[in-house]
Design goal:
Radius of gyration: 14 Å
Number of helices: 5
Strand content: under 5%
Shape: globular
Largest sheet: none
Helix content: 55-70%
Order of helices and strands: HHHHH
Length: 109
């Protein structure tokens, strides 16, 4: 499952930023594992939206992107991550999904 691989990437990035420790295969009802899944899914959506030429703004699709970024960071705050880290995971998403969606590779700067 590709989402599981993104969750693992998110988990390792968070582990580098803090002393966070959770086993994804344990009880998925815990706040930590659900936060990881939300962050991973939002990260995937963020990458696709930016690859489609959408940038954060106050109107339309840009506003939706901005809200998705903010929601991903809200769940990161639940895991005691207070600084931006999503940008560090863009390359992993591009590597995982780039074969199926070449526009991710083309627009990854």
């Amino acid at each position: 499952d590709i989402l599981f691989q993104i969750v693992c990437s998110v988990k390792s990035a968070i582990k580098q930023k803090s002393n966070f420790e959770v086993n994804y295969s344990e009880d998925l009802q815990h706040q930590e594992s659900s936060s990881l899944r939300v962050i991973a899914d939002h990260l995937r959506a963020i990458c696709f939206m930016i690859a489609d030429g959408i940038f954060p703004s106050n109107i339309g699709r840009g506003y939706v992107l901005r809200r998705i970024i903010r929601r991903a960071m809200k769940y990161a705050h639940y895991l005691n991550i207070k600084e931006p880290f999503l940008y560090t995971l863009v390359n992993q998403v591009t590597q995982l999904m780039g074969n199926s969606y070449p526009e991710l590779i083309e627009r990854n700067n």
